[in-house]
Amino acid sequence: MSLVLGLRRIASRQAVWTCRRMNSTAAETREIDVLGTKYTPDAWTNATPSILDKTGRNLLHHESHPLSILKTLIFNEFPNFAHYDTLSPVVTTQQNFDSLGFAEDHPGRARTDTYYLNARHLLRTHTSAHQLQLLAAAHTNDKSVLVHAKNAQAAPNNERFLVAADVFRRDEIDASHYPVFHQMEGVCTLSRADVQQLAPSTPDDVVDIGPENPVQPGHTAEDVHKVAADMKRTMNRMVTRILTQATAAQRHAGSEATEFPVRWIPAYFP
């Protein structure tokens, strides 16, 4: 199960650019300090001070902020998941691209699309950059990662987790775009026995299978349809509950959850 919610935000603060002189004759090298960790710039560096100033705002932790309220509502819908919302915005190219199967020539890797601190480190462009990191952390007992988990007892092996975070992309600012926004993502691993217990799919649960979205080795068509149908039911239920809670008239009237129209669109990423 995977969910991604994009939420725009405006921010500013907390990243420091410091300078140090290598020696009396060498050119001055600027060191980039993001949330207390220093990175040495190189030819790939394109993250500007104005963007770095937007790290560390922690809007997801401001109790009365709409982003924090929505995050909490979604976390509450998944009480059997571990919850992460304090992971560093700095990730490696391996985490952000390679681990997710991005082609070497994928436009998302371009300096025109992504903010690089150097050739190896960048500001995450999506919460998916943490998927492999979190799945691996439980198996290697990486406490530097696991310490960020909330509700960890619900999924001690990170077999189910949600990640909420700010993400960064080199978008031109306009009415619907800003270079910093928020996403939330969920991952749920299923054993063969888990899949067999899922409710069967219905004729409405159409899954677009083709060259760009093939059945993975080890999966049957029945597996794919059952998992996809379960994901859709989970997502639809979450959205319906949140929208219902947000509708004051329905709350005061004591009405049941409304059937909101939903349309699923086949898409491939990356």
Estimate percent helicity. Answer: 25-40%
**Main β-sheet, in a few words?**
4 strands, mixed
Form type: globular
Quickly count the helices.
Answer: 8
Report the radius of gyration as a whole number of Å: 21 Å
Strand content: 15-25%
The N- to C-terminal Cα distance equals 17 Å
Q: What does the average pLDDT come to?
A: 84
Strand order of the largest sheet: 1-9-8-5
Task: Give the SSE string.
Answer: EEEEHHEEHEHHEEHHH
Strand segment tally: 9
Secondary structure class reads: alpha+beta
Uncertain runs:
1-28
Can you describe this structure?
- By secondary structure, the protein is α+β, with helices and mostly antiparallel strands.
- The chain has eight helices and nine strands.
- It has helices at 49-52, 66-77, 93-96, 131-140, 143-146, 192-197, 221-245, 248-253; strands at 4-8, 16-20, 29-34, 37-39, 82-84, 90-92, 121-123, 160-168, 180-188.
- It has a four-stranded mixed sheet, with helices on one face. It has a three-stranded antiparallel sheet with strand order 2-3-4, with no helix packed on it. A two-stranded antiparallel sheet has the order 6-7.
- Strand 3 and strand 4 (37-39) form a beta hairpin.
Topology:
Layout: E1 4-8, E2 16-20, E3 29-34, E4 37-39, H1 49-52, H2 66-77, E5 82-84, E6 90-92, H3 93-96, E7 121-123, H4 131-140, H5 143-146, E8 160-168, E9 180-188, H6 192-197, H7 221-245, H8 248-253
